[in-house]
Amino acid sequence: MTLDLPTTREEAFRWADMPAIEAARALPAAAIATPDPILADAARLVFVGGALIERTGDLAIADDTVASDHALARFASGRGHRITLAPRTVTAIEITRVNAGEDSHTPLVITLGEDAVLTLVESFTGAGWTNTLTRFDLGKGARVMRAVRVVQSAGFVSTRDEVSIAEAASFVSVALGATGAGTRLDAALTLNGDGAYAELGGALLTRDDQRQECAVRVRHAAPNGQSHQLWRAVAADRSTVSLAAAVEVARDAQKTDGEQSLRGLLLKRTATVNLKPELEIFADDVKCAHGATIGELDDRALFYMQSRGIPEPRAKALLTRAFVADALDRIADDTVRDTFAADADAWLEQTL
Known about the structure:
- The protein is mainly β.
- The chain has helices spanning about 20-25, 300-305, 310-330, 335-350; strands at about 45-50, 50-55, 60-65, 80-85, 90-110, 115-140, 145-150, 155-165, 170-180, 180-190, 195-205, 210-220, 225-235, 240-250, 255-265, 270-280, 285-295.
- It has a 17-stranded mixed beta sheet that branches.
- Helix 2 (about 300-305) packs across helix 3 (about 310-330) and helix 3 runs antiparallel to helix 4.
């Protein structure tokens, strides 16, 4: 069945690689092993082909119907699951998404009560088209610390996050795309409450003819909110990374503090990095800033390291690793951060 996918004539998908989705769906099914968990004490959910086949822990999970009019998330709309975390609870969840080929769609809603705390780690493995719709609803004072690890070997991964953040709540999410698949990470965050906080970022690494992109929109709808976006892009060979990050400040969202940092690193001049920071401000008492830069590895640093006996590929790997470190170092949990760093190192070892 041919899908009605968005085209590059639509501004929101101007850099999207939609033909890669059709190619991903045509990949043959194959047996894929479920990776070992990263967090030893976390409740674990394993989705295979979009179906929940394994769960551990005492999470309150119910069936739910989830809908979205987003151009890709609508394919994931339908019967899914809802996780509800009670007020003032502390929970760790690890979600593993395994795709054995073809289509895999997963709708999920996570609701946090007042002052609830969630540590969430998500991993994508396998091949085919993996498509998710995840909705977060944070109550007053709730906190989410999330890490998303895309290491799927082939195909395409598209994620759509729709996040509502209430008064004094915070949502922090870090993503790593160290994969052989194409990706599109799409998110819409709304800071609905006074003093809400959002932090979003990560690193996308591409090689060969691969394409990865993120498209994030943060809307400040209440006063005294803060949002920070920090993304790093590394492109080798003929690959392309595209980062589009927008901040919208509503008329009543006075005292907003918004910051965007988008940086790209070209490992070869045949590669491409597209950066698009965007600010839409309708309030008059705010502090918002953005920065976007694209460059290459420092020749003087490379020369110095080689003069100290470090081989060129190793020197390039060390400098590239340092470039993405400020994105990955925002992961609070040591074990999770080390796992993400190991994924980035493995990607660099294969690429350089």
